[in-house]
Amino acid sequence: MRLRNIAGSREKIAESSFVVHKPWEQRGKWRELFKNDNPIVIEIGMGKGKFLHELAAANPQNNYIGIEKYSSVLLRAIQKMEEDELPNLRFIRMDAEGLTGVFDKGEVEKIYLNFSDPWPKERHAGRRLPSRQFLERYDQVLAPDGRLEFKTDNRELFDFALDELSEAGWRAEAVTYDLHHDDAMLPGNIMTEYEERFSAMGNPICKYIICR
Ligand code: SAM
Asked: Are the C-beta atoms of residues 151 and 199 closer than 8 Å to each other?
């Protein structure tokens, strides 16, 4: 998701107390920022933050961090927080390639990837968020018993993501190719913005939950 450049978005983000501006300084100390020992849950590529905002509101027992690389998109998530402030939700504007510089080993309890960009060209496969290159980064920051959940309507990307697992030392705990008609995996599902858009077009939604 890349919105038209919104004038002043970088400045507004720089002023926002909902954004962690020097996230590398929090490495190993995220619980201090939230002033509690609650588990840290992250969404990578959160877009405008609808999913994470709803998830954080429903689960005050967890701390949530949304990671998004584009200012214009992150701005929307900040605006949502201004309307409905949550103490357990914060944002980082960064490229997830730098994840291990921001979270210490095992510091994250759960990772969400939702409707990640497909990067269809083969030479860009390493930029796909469920690629083996990113799974290695997730392996470093995720707790040993942590889980990663991924949703997409892009069947090619999903098949690629499944193929990457064993190579990177992960295994699928649950898989569906049609989440919205899956009685076992649907309960508690929170729709993302893209999920609303693509399921309204009739696209089935794929999802996996993985662990090591
Ligand atoms: N997750 C949202 C949803 O499901 O509605 C947004 C999906 S959108 C297709 C993908 C988002 O991931 C975009 O906002 C994009 O900027 C962000 N993104 C892609 N690669 C990223 C990366 N390496 N680091 C941080 N954000 C990234």
From this structure: no
CATH placement of domain 106-212: 3.40.50.150
Report how far ligand 1's centroid is from the alpha carbon of 1 (Å): 6
Active-site amino acid positions: 117
CB 72 within 8 A of CB 4: yes
Question: What confidence tens digit (pLDDT) does each residue in 38-96 have?
Answer: 999 999 999 999 999 999 999 999 999 999 999 999 999 999 999 999 999 999 999 99
Q: What is the pTM of this model?
A: 0.96
Which atom of ligand 1 is found nearest the CA of 197?
A: 5
Mind listing the pLDDT tens digit for each residue in 166-176? 988 999 999 99
Whole-number Å distance between alpha carbons of 150 and 112: 6
Please name the fold of domain 1-19+44-104: Rossmann fold (3.40.50)
Q: Which of 129, 149, 154 for mutating ligand 1's site (highest number of atoms within 8 Å of CB)?
A: 129
Contact 45 CB / ligand 1 (< 6 Å): yes
Determine contact, residues 128/186, Cβ cutoff 8 Å: no
For atom 6 of ligand 1, the residue with the nearest CA is: 47
